[in-house]
Amino acid sequence: MDREREFCCSDCGVLNCYRQEGSFPKECVGAKKVGAKEIEALKATYRDDPFVSKLSRAAAEIEGTYYGKLTRVEEIIAFARRIGAEKIGIASCIGLMGETRTFTRILDAHRLSSYCAICKVGSIDKAEVGVPEEMKLQPSCFEGICNPVLQAKILNREKTGLNVLMGLCVGHDSLFIKYSKAPVTTLVTKDRVLGHNPAAALYNTGFYYKRLLQNQDI
User: Fold this and answer.
1) Are residues 93 and 166 in contact, defined by beta-carbon separation less than 8 angstroms?
2) Cβ contacts of 79-82, under 8 Å, gap ≥ 24
3) Theoretical Cys-Cys bridge with 165: which of 16, 95, 133, 186, CB 3.0 to 4.6 Å?
4) CA dist., res. 164 & res. 201, Å (int)
């Protein structure tokens, strides 16, 4: 643990907040950073706020009913049904359009409509927004930017009830979430090196990805 960093949840070895079968550490974030009044206000938000209540209860119902039984694809369908989202927006990376087409067929089979906006929508050259030519994958030729802001705006116009991320780049996903009016969930998280399974890097820090634990500039 970095001793210059203040104690937080990733440093806790107790995790008593889940079952309360033991004792909370004295540095517990929930005890030190959050007061009883704030906890009561949060309970009221989860109970009484229409948007928060609908989504949080739907998520809890799916976990409680289908824990370990449904794939992520199926969970998204179940979640969409519970929150009343009849039209699913898909913000897809151009490199995952095959997977996106399969997903749309699955949604069709479950009587859910969908609308996809690809990351290169608008076809704006990277140089037009200030990206240096040397930062292109192929310099000195047209190369469209990833356009998550426009993806979100298009899906907003389509009045989608739930938007699904299909492999948007790190940072582009952040921008999409910022501009999306509908709630957002993720189906595929991009990792070009690990076949879109970024957790594999965490599982292999003891051997193949030991370098991740070393202080090296990236």
Assistant:
1) yes
2) 79/162, 79/185, 80/112, 80/161, 80/162, 81/112, 82/54, 82/57, 82/58
3) 186
4) 24
User: Quick check: pTM over 0.85?
Assistant: yes
Tell whether 153 and 200 lie within a shared domain.
Answer: yes
- For 141-198, the pLDDT digits (tens) are 999 999 999 999 999 999 999 999 999 999 999 999 999 999 999 999 999 999 999 9
Q: Which two tokens stand for residue 167?
A: 């492999």
SS3 for 130? coil
pLDDT one-digit tens code per residue, 69-115? 999 999 999 999 999 999 999 999 999 999 999 999 999 999 999 99
- Count up the domains in the chain and report the number: 2
Domain identity same for 117 and 202: yes
Chain centroid to Cα 43, Å, comes to 24
Same domain, 55 and 150: no
